[in-house]
Amino acid sequence: MRRIAPLGLRTRLIAAFLLVAAISAGTTAALTYQQARNAILKQTQDTAVSTLRDQVEQQEIRLPLEQQELQRIVIELGKRGKPHPWIIFGEYGGIRVSTNPGTPTSTVITDSLRDRVRNNQYAAFQRVEDQRGSPWLTIGVPALFEHNGYIESTGVVFYASVPLSTEKQTVEAMVEAAQQGAVPGLAIAVVPALLAARSVLRPVRDMRRAAQKLGRGRLDTRIEVRGADELAGLARTFNETARALEQSVRELQEAEVRARRFASDVSHELRTPLAGMLAVTEVLDEDAARLDADTAKALRLVSAETGKLAVLVEDLMEISRFDARAAELNLDDVDIAEAVRKTLERRHWDDARVVTDLPHGVRARLDPRRFDVVLANLVGNALRHGGAPVHVTVSTAAGADGERLLIDVADSGPGIAPEVLPHIFDRFFKADAARTRSAGSGLGLAITLENVRLHGGTLRAGNRPAGGALFTLDMPLEAHV
After folding, report:
1. How far is the C-alpha of 291 from the C-alpha of 285, rounded, in Å?
2. Bridge partners for 150 per DSSP
3. What is the largest CA-CA distance in the chain?
């Protein structure tokens, strides 16, 4: 099922603005229409009822009433219709007359209106529609007389049927005008909607651009504060946060520079005395056999620890070069199979400890010295912390940017614990806290990763399904300086 992209903030603001405008316009039009319609109809019905009641009260009715006399009164009343010409009907007992002799009764005069007029003896009215749907106002007024101080009914009732076609046309014209005015009104409302959306979105866009600049490392980015509303407060908060972040990052960078300089300076200062110490320990090692057992043991311990210190200093200097961006590649065309074999031979790792799968004809342009360091660190780490035999497999694969070199180094040990995997390439990290006195400095894999990155490659650590750790080196066959 295709997912519908969400609407942008501008579109939602304009839609909300137009929706509010449409609801406001519709509500106003509906209320205006209702009030105007009621006013028009009320004025018409009040005028008609008042006029008919006054006209009936002016008539002198003598009982018993003959049909001719009732017809005369009806015709007289029919001449005085207000506000529109009306049709008058008169009823007295069984006598039925109207201003139109051919239709003495009316279909728009309902039985409920007759009952209200006769039973309650007061004027009543109704708005009804005929069979064709035309609106009518029907009015019933009883003829009364005063007898001994009491108002009594004569039994004569006059009805008026007033057509409301004019009022209907007026109301329909109002509805049509409202409909015709709604579309231009909404079209005009788009202009303030765009202006309002622009005023709201401008600081949002400024903040987005500023956040993007911060993400790219431009910590001096600030937003211009306009006004004193909520968006201006947000901009001020953003500027304060960016200022604090810039200050914190500057302090961290200065501390990092001092730490790198310290490590580099210490490493350089230690090289000279270490070189002398190594030379002395080598001479003493040659004479250790002629010394007593305790002295020889102490001498060998000093020699071993001095060697570890020398390795640590060299690793620290290498890390310092990477941190200072001073590490460089000295590229050469290398036969990968031959380079792997030479690395293993230099460390005296025989076929019983390291099993290789080296295809012929795989050549790569890389830094031989750094490649030797990478492979030696991976295999040495597998032998120390995993277990023999270690399998080294070389292959190639097609990548998006050309042919790539793949090297898998797998050991036969228990594998890497899940909690260790995220930190396996961290500096000075050791999986077992009890190994703080081990031969490794905790920098080998970190240096390996930096060398791989320098070649434009990646290094991944994981576990094989059958058991054992697996390191996968992925780098281009043609490295670039």
Report:
1. 10
2. 147
3. 164
